[in-house]
Design brief:
With 449 residues, the chain is of the alpha/beta class. It contains 19 helices and 14 strands.
Amino acid sequence: MKRTLLVVDDEYGIREFLYELFRDIYDVTLAADGKEAIELFEKNLFDVALIDLRMPEVSGIDVLAYIKDKNIETIPVVITADRDIDHAVEAMKMGAYDYITKPMDYKKLTVTIHNAIEKKGLEEKIDSLERHILPSSLFSNIISHSKEMRAVFNSMENVLNNDATVLIYGESGTGKELIARAIHFNGNRSDKPFIPVDCASIPESLIETELFGYEKGAFTGALKTTKGKFEQADGGTIFLDEISNISLDAQAKLLRVVQEREFLRIGGDKKILVDVRIISASNKDLKKMIQDGSFREDLYYRLNVIPIRLPALRERTEDIPLLIQHYLTIFNERYHKKVIFDNETLRILMDYGWPGNVRELENVLNRVILTAEKDVVLPNALPQEMRKAGASDDGAETPDSDISLDSLEKQHIRKLLMKYDFNISAVAEILGVTRKTLYSKMEKFDIKK
């Protein structure tokens, strides 16, 4: 089914030209003035509206005001004369996506309308994903709709109400502690302590002291008996983050705790018994570390009873729009702003590889929104490495690119075919054409699998 475009212009020649320009790509409706446009909005839904600002009686600004007042989910693009740039700026403040000046650059116009349509599709995708996330879900604080994370949720549900030892694998920034907390606070130990231990940040000489505690006088400065993390977690859950960082000596003592749920404080001779669930996490390949001799095989098998692998953000890209919207809402509220991203900025955020995963995305959005001086964030506000990565992406031309309509259509068709693994029926339906027409266009543009 074709996307819908409303063209509003009081000049007959321009209306007819724009109709001929876009009719093969979109379902185009024409309005001869602002009044007719408002009447059409009362009965129809349009994805994008191309609106001339200078019209008699009901102006383009009036139409924008109507769209805003009625919360109509149409993306407006306005047409203005060079001498009316101030009106264009006013239109942008009222929610216009972009503006085109007369005399029109039709190459820029086609790309702008294409980008507005893409933005509309992204907004619809976010709305759809948010509707499918159940508010009553046990893990509703974890923002995801991807099948990769669904597998993680299934594994989590299987361990909620038992004491099975869990080992969470995942790159840095994927949210391993968030998963551990969700297991604890939705399980049968939720009213007991959750004690996280960042093994990577504790010096090797202090790891045993931190985990097992010490008796008064055990060493210089030990002025009183102090409980370690295992005792603090008694009855609840201890989360050993980056377990790969502890020494072989500490691993041997940890093995006994995992097996027997008992240990000795440093300097003590009395066994301490604990009832504790153990969840560990690692961003390293523990099997490879076993081969290298830096991790105990017996400890690995004790910890790896229930393995849960967290996918990297680049493996679940369909979650990126949700995460962007989630953090946009959080940081706008925190900093009392109303920041939005323009389409090109969104595209860069969507296409970036995110080597630091969700943590990197959160930090980038936090910084960008905090430092934003205007309500609309443009690409130059993003880190340089992201802009460079976005500039090198295939088919990422900006509206100023020297691009023909055929080239734009070719890119769009190729992108859809790649996305849907050359499923001709699916892509033809999305484009609103027959399979025969799609095959003809593939032949015309020399698009092959």
